[in-house]
Specification:
The protein is α/β, with parallel strands linked by helices. The chain has two domains: about 140 residues, Rossmann fold; about 140 residues, Dihydrodipicolinate Reductase, domain 2, CATH 3.30.360. About 40% of the residues lie in helices and about 25% in strands. It is built from ten helices and eleven strands. Strand 5, helix 5 and strand 6 form a beta-alpha-beta unit. Helix 1 crosses helix 10. It starts with a strand and ends in a 5-residue tail after the last helix.
Length: about 300
Amino acid sequence: MADRIKVGVIGPGNIGSDLMYKIFRSKHLEMAMMAGIVESEGIRRAKGFGVPTTTEGVDGLIKDGDKDIRIVFDATSAAAHLKFNGPKLKENGIIAIDLTPAAIGPYCVPLVNLDKLADEQDINMVTCGGQATIPIVYAVSRVAGAEYAEIISCISSKSAGPGTRANMDEFTETTSKALEVVGGADKGKAIIVLNPAEPPLMMTNTIHVRVKDKSVPFEEIEKSILEMVEDLKTYVPGYHLRVPPTMEGDKVTTIVQVEGQADFLPAYSGNLDIINSAAVAAAEKMAERMLAEGGNK
């Protein structure tokens, strides 16, 4: 389709399947291939929608996929992206949107820094907790500075699949660093909690920021946070403040909750929904630019 950019997904698990549903809904993206390493349920699901598939991973996507594929989402693991998928996509001139904590390329939080990454071949979507909290930290830091930022992401155990559990160490390290690099904090710390409650609870994120400039009125900080929340809702409709911002001394605290859109995953899997929604939002912006420059030609 001339008005869409062809994309692929590596990793047909829960995240990859949810990505596929979101891509189906996109105005600027066309789902051109699902890649896995075994004949899994996710591969069969993609086939059922008429999506070309391969069980040879990134090699199969490059060898047998549509040669017009311009963007690929990697929903596998940090190790796989670091060793195989990232380098091979780059060699073939395909933009990689990395949903693992591998961080070969720069961190991307669409609302904060996507415009600065136009020439990058590999962008990293940080983590689910990063996508939920970095915009808020940035909202504080852009008006009052941020000496320290600490976030606690609490997600349902049921929404933490094998990939999430395997990447727990990378989650804390990557999110902590991205709070500094993208969020603007001098020092960042991230904690993840898997909540076994039944019925499963929505993803919640507690955010603490110690500001640098104590002379900035709290009203300005609050206004910046509220504006960021509204902007986030443009691609994550279920994002909202569970506890409004408060300020005690030099510390700003707020709690955000993320309800998923239930495209493929349950609504309580807001952690997976927000990183997928951010990834698709980034790809759509890239696709708009590509289409303006002549599309797949």
